[in-house]
Structures
1.
Amino acid sequence: MKNRAILVVSFGTTYPQTLEETIGAIEREIEKAYPEYFVRRCFTSGIVRKVLYQREGLQIDDVPDALERLLEEGVTEVAVQPTHVMHGFEYDKLQSQAAAFTGRFPRLSLGRPLLSSTADYQEVVQALRSEFADPLADPQAALVLMGHGTEHFANACYAALNDHVRAAGVRNLFVGAVEGYPEVDDLLIRIKESGAKRVVLAPLMVVAGDHARNDMAGAGPDSWKSRLESAGYPVTCILKGLGSYRTIRQIYLSHLREIL
């Protein structure tokens, strides 16, 4: 029996298809890279866990329950790797929950979220340039990425990512947030200044769940798609979460590698 485990911690999603295409893809890549560990799934959202249990019969632990279960199973080494994008409220909660188990395992380590260091920002920009090469090569197109946003000071990561995009010489990629700055109104100004004639919309979130399908690509008048179309831009939506892209998954793996 393996006594070393990797706990992959995600906020979670109630959409089964994007769950397997994103979070599942990250977990499978970790399993392939580290066969000597067993990989355990963990969601921090109580609402998501409740819906999945009631609708699908899926029982997914939160962080404390997952760590308690690993203790009961005799695991001695645990690496906790989040799939969070930023050091926001969810990561703060994860740090606190993991700290409560300090000393109960011979070894317990916690990895970093996607955007943590200057190198992370630079690697994410290069990943986006690779994954969205076609729209970024079109001088008539603007690529707009919708992040979640937060009241936490970590929301500054979106402005920082925009700065790194410009520093890399990319002029037609714009990052915003549905619940923070930059808002869609801010991006409309920048898109107009760029001279773009059409917009490609995609989520800057690990999964393409409710926010991507409704706030970004929904038919309602307040969705980003509707707002951009009202401003005169033809809009194409890409409903793929960041976890779908291997270049992004490799950044998470590099963060895991740091703590193993």
2.
Amino acid sequence: MRSDLSDEESQELLKRLETMLDLISRYWGKKNAGIIEMYVVKDLSIWSPNMMPANAWQSVSTGGGLTITQKRSIGQVWQAKAVVYAIADRGTPQHEAVHAYCGQAFGSTGPVWYSEGMAEIGKYWAGPDDKTVHCDPYVIKYLKTSPYKPLEELVDRDQFTGDSWQNYAWRWTLCHLLGFNDNYSQRFKPLGLALMSEQPRISFASVYGTMAKEIEFEHKLFVENMDVGYRVDLCSWDWRTKFQPLRGSRTTSVKIEADHGWQASRLEVAAGQSYSYSTNGEWTLEEDGQDITADGNDAGDGRMVGIIFHDYELTEPFELGIEGTFEAECDGKLYVRCREDWSKIADNEGTVTLKLQAAR
């Protein structure tokens, strides 16, 4: 690394880069192919323009970075060398180093949505088993206050790299969801490896096309609810549980976990129909915290709440609690959860059993 950072700053950055490189190497299952060469700029005014290519100078001067990868092929054998040019702040060196690793290890970084989304994941990733959102608060604020970008737009082939940090942020949301949500993660790594290896006829549509509605639904929820600390794996939507209506004296019961998002109740509700419910058990809102019932604490945190899913749309959440009745505002499937800030559910503990019956 060539840089105008102080020795202390350089060592701290190198430590972060080596940690990141170890994480992504283990994730993709391939060691870095050679040394990654980097130019990291803190104060551009003390650098000479002839120290880097003109396009790299332009990127750094506008507060960004650029990775230039040269690939040579001899028959089926190829070798690649990547050089990174990056401004020293905003995680840009880590972002560009992901591009360099992918270029050297696989010969390509894949399409723009994958390339830039995964580079952002590499920038934020804290550990091999960590699935927590760690991105900058200003990024979260932008995403939650901006018009939603549909999947079709995010994976469009006509995108170009280096367009804006805002577009990088949107690509990150998709890669983070696919990479850590239990419904999609098993397909995501093989897809990425195929994209970077430029395998023919492999694309987002060929792998996830049949799941597009489900992904779009969960992606919208992720963007709407996320904050630092959010876990998409704990909030994975249950698409597999079978739901059924209840008539007469039939009942259904299900265990609801405090540390998960919306969970399937197995009850298919009908508009205007009333249902009675009761609960048994306690949960906590922190590790080794105070046990509370489904009525929650004095502030209402920890209370059991419900929502109705119908045709990939959700009603507004409504209060449940330890026992009572509710009237369904529309046809659909009932999902419930322990009410807690979405970014804080990971340390919740305990389960509550919910019993449901059509009200007479």
3.
Amino acid sequence: MRALLARLPRRPWTAVLTAAVLSASALTVLPANGAETGCRVDYTVNKWADGYTAQIKVTHLGPALDGWRLSWTYTGDQQVTSAWNATVTQTGGSVVAASTSWNGVLPTGGAVEFGLQGTWRSADPAPSDFTLNGVPCGGDGTTPPTTPPTTEPPTTPPPDPDCGSAVICSDFEDQTGPAPSGDWRFTAPDCQGTGTAAVDTAVAHSGSRSLRVDGRAGYCNHAFVAATADLSSVGPVMHVRMWVRHTTALPSAHVTFVSLPDTSQSGRSLRVGGQNGALQWNRESDDATLPEQSPAGVAQSRPLPTGSWQCLRFAIDTTAPGLDTWLGDELIPGLHADGVPTQDIDRQWLARTTPPRPTALRLGWESYGTGDDTLWFDDVAVGSAPIGC
């Protein structure tokens, strides 16, 4: 699954004391082609029998950059599986790491660091052909251009903030009354309590309307607004984007505010919600959670901020048990699952290997004991291509 890149190192970082190459089983530091007026890359790797993590530091010596892309080539059989503090894509041996919204500005003499995790089988030599914005980090006195090159597009295009060909694309401006109608219907799966749902004309992310759900505490207190669209053909990766706002911090008890009926679970749902104060995925059929609800696992998720609109995005692989989740521009490490189980993150989730096949989208509130909340949803989209904020 492309662009499903964010997870934590399996092992803690070891302190870097020198720039010498240590033993193959220990930490390695490789400065790459320093230049007085160019750039320098420190590639620090920690590897084991079939995997590795790399911490990469880019020191820029030329004119200030507004956005950067670092490229290199793996000459072994390394495969990047996740990354943090950069958007990393790989095609064959070619790897590109692009700046995020919060670390794109790189002043003269400034440095930026990001990390990645990967696998290898037969060979994993460190790369040495780093280029910054298309210019080698070499000793010829050249400096990277001050903006990323436009002639070489990224391997994976950035998500489109518009809906494009999405199966669901709704800002709820077509809602004419106080009750959800048209492509949206109120539903209370399994059982109904005192929760309600309505079209709100006082609070909206865009336009003048949104969906409002007044969620109530109590076991099996379900209140959802379901899209009528059939999502069974969306894929192979299903991309979901929504803007959500709520009033009360996620509780310690388990709650759900997004539910996706899943044919691989005989109609039971993939659920997005919270537990222990942080966002989590939950699988209804076996109650598996992503991340695991250990202190270390929960620490790798994020709370859902209150009192402001938040862009929440999901990528659900329907061909393998893979998931990614973004809050704004941040790809959340604890809400990432791929084919390599990681303790405290996706080991429990990957115990079930059947790929998910969501068929519908429901937005609302489901409490399993405690926790009232009021939520608004707006600018909701579901399609087969990435959809940005």
4.
Amino acid sequence: MEPHLVRAVLGLLIGSVLGYAARRGGFCTLGALEDAVYGKDTRRLRAWALAIAVAMVGVHILNLEGLELHRTLYASPQLELGPLVLGGLTFGFGMALVGNCAFGNLLRLGGGDLKALVTLLVAAVSAVMAMRGLTALVRVVAIDPLSIPMPDGRFQLLPDLLGVGRTASMMFAIACACLLTIYALADGALRKDRKLTAAAVAIGLCVTAGWWATGFAGFDSFGTDRPVSLSFARPVGDTMLFAMLASGMQVDFGIASVMGVLLGAFVEARQARHFRWEAPDDASELRRHIFGAFLMGTGGITALGCTIGQGVTGIATLSIGSAIALASIAAGGRAGLYYLVEWRG
């Protein structure tokens, strides 16, 4: 089997497990933020930390085995400070307007939510526009130049900045993962919520499996593709393009993982008897979803990833850029919640 087909098959399988586990456990980025701010409930926020901890250990084990982290999107010697901050804020605000991120909308669509379908279509179009369309011109001219080189040409991975090798990187990752796990499990409510805890562990393992799928099992020594793992900013746009131009594109890990998440979420929704068709309540809600989706698609491409792509996959590599992107997404989401709940309310 050709390497891209190996990656696609594994992407479909990994995405299916991810979609099933996340929907079953109620894993949600905006929900975690909203619960913490307005409900003083940090279970889903702590579950996010647990998912990062599992993925962090996993990716650095693979790093010891030869995964070329320096070739990944998260290890550039050029810190895209402006794009990460502006894109993250834009994505986060759009996420709040929609009520979920791109990954969360895939989970919702798997359960029959037609609002999620509209959101994903608009997010896909705006992502393609930000990659190679009209908004890409603005991004390339006005935002991408707002980048700074890393000191001494080092990669933006924290272990590389500290000048340590792979073994020391592994030990550093384990130490960080232990701190995150302690924070996560210090909350008795999360320990009792077995579905959410299991979902967090499964998500971390799926991110690790994604790195294995593209960096080892489906690695093409003659190809130019770099190792990737789960992300849902660009792949949603690529999936839409593939649906329209299948004869001119190759299905790969990203597209297959999007379809896998939909499949896994659908199976869980049917199994739990939660599947039902839902439509927007009114024109005002639909308008808000369309505008928020446009911001998400544009911001996700600008920030080089989404809540999963930067917030779990990227953070697990100990990338400085991913930490900046995640903080910006969280700030944008908080601003969006303030606008919807406190300012408008």
